[in-house]
Design a protein that fits this description.
Layout lengths: L2 E9 L15 E6 L4 E7 L15 H15 L6 H19 L14 E10 L2 E7 L3 E5 L5 E4 L4 H13 L3 H17 L6 E2 L9 E5 L6 E5 L1 H4 L10 H10 L2 H13 L3 H4 L8 E8 L6
Antiparallel strand pairs: 1-11, 2-3, 3-4, 4-5, 4-8, 5-9, 6-7, 6-10, 10-11
Helix pairs in contact: 1-2, 6-7
Amino acid sequence: MPISVKESINWPGAGLTADTPKVTGDDRFGFDESAGTSWVLDGATDLGPFRLFKQFESDAAWMAEFLNRELMSHPPKGDLLAYFGDILAAVRKRAEKKSKVDIETAPRETWPIASGMWMWHTDDVTTFVRSGDCVALIRTPDGKTEVLTKHEQSDLEARTSRELNAMSPEDRMAGLRKIRATQNTDPQHVLLGLSPQGVDTLVIETRNLPEGSHILIMSDGLWRVVDPYAMMTAERMMDEALSDGVEHLARLMRKFEKADSQDAAARIKKSDDACGVLVEIRSLMAP
């Protein structure tokens, strides 16, 4: 197997309580060790005036779930843009069958979207495909750490949060819906979802990573321990993931959020869904 999955976690921001024992949240993760693939998906919180789908607790969860199922069912091959085009087309086809209203005539703010980080290790090359603000931390055996993410995302979200939080609830929702419509229609900002243009904004990068390298891919909900909460550096985050585990990091973050810190309270959402997968690059000769 070209990769070995060391740990995975999906921790909904709402938490699991006696009142919500089946909550799944809007994040998903998946992996196929034999194919050398792993990924995380972060469904964006519903904003539309109505729901499109009956399944799951949100349309965001619906989108993340069926993107996840398609990725799990179809190992990659050939042109990755064509591969992801097929994934999005399959999800769109399912959505057209399952939606309560006609997809094409529905307001674009009702279309669910997701960010994602996907990796594939094959032939000694690791390929990363990302959309939106999910993150990959790479640690090579020499101890160097690299961060792959949309680096300007946090500053943009912080500014947007301040502006929206200063508005009335009605104006805030209108502003959020305008942003969501843009994320479904603007060719430069479309994310994974019902628009085929989601393929056009994918960022693809490759790395030559040696055996023994570790990769932590995560939704932005887990990355908050570094940005914006500044609880630790990216290097320390990887150190603690390797020494104490990914769940340990998530527990530290939830404790920070429960403390009602200024940094947490300033967010549009004080708590966010968080998922992550920790992977090790293996030799193809390893048992």
